[in-house]
Amino acid sequence: MIKNKFSEILGKKRMRMSEVARLTGLRNATLSAIYNNKCKQIAFETLNKICWALECNVQDIFEYEQEK
């Protein structure tokens, strides 16, 4: 199972999705879908832009947990 920590990292960095959208050029709807766990897939380019804006790695945003 993939755990989405996008909201956590935004909170830690005290950033809003609108600021990430401005920095990356991504649509608010795209970021909202990621934030709310509504997306089924994410393009590498999108992840690259988010990681650049948040100055983090993919592992900081998503974490793999084995299902029990």
DSSP, total strands: 2
Q: From the 3D coordinates, which CATH architecture would you assign?
A: Orthogonal Bundle
Tally the structural domains: 1
Q: Main sheet?
A: 2 strands, antiparallel
Provide the β-strand percentage band.
Answer: 5-15%
The whole-angstrom Rg is 11 Å
Q: Separation of termini?
A: 10 Å
- Tell me the strand order in the biggest sheet: 1-2
| Average predicted confidence as pLDDT | 94
Structural class by SSE content: mainly alpha
Structure commentary:
The protein has helices at 6-13, 17-24, 28-35, 44-54, 58-61, and strands at residues 2-4, 62-64. By secondary structure, the protein is mostly helical. The chain has a single domain (2-62), classed as lambda repressor-like DNA-binding domains (434 Repressor (Amino-terminal Domain), Orthogonal Bundle).
Q: How would you concisely characterize the structure shown here?
A:
With 68 residues, this protein is mainly alpha-helical. Helices cover 57% and strands 9% of the residues.
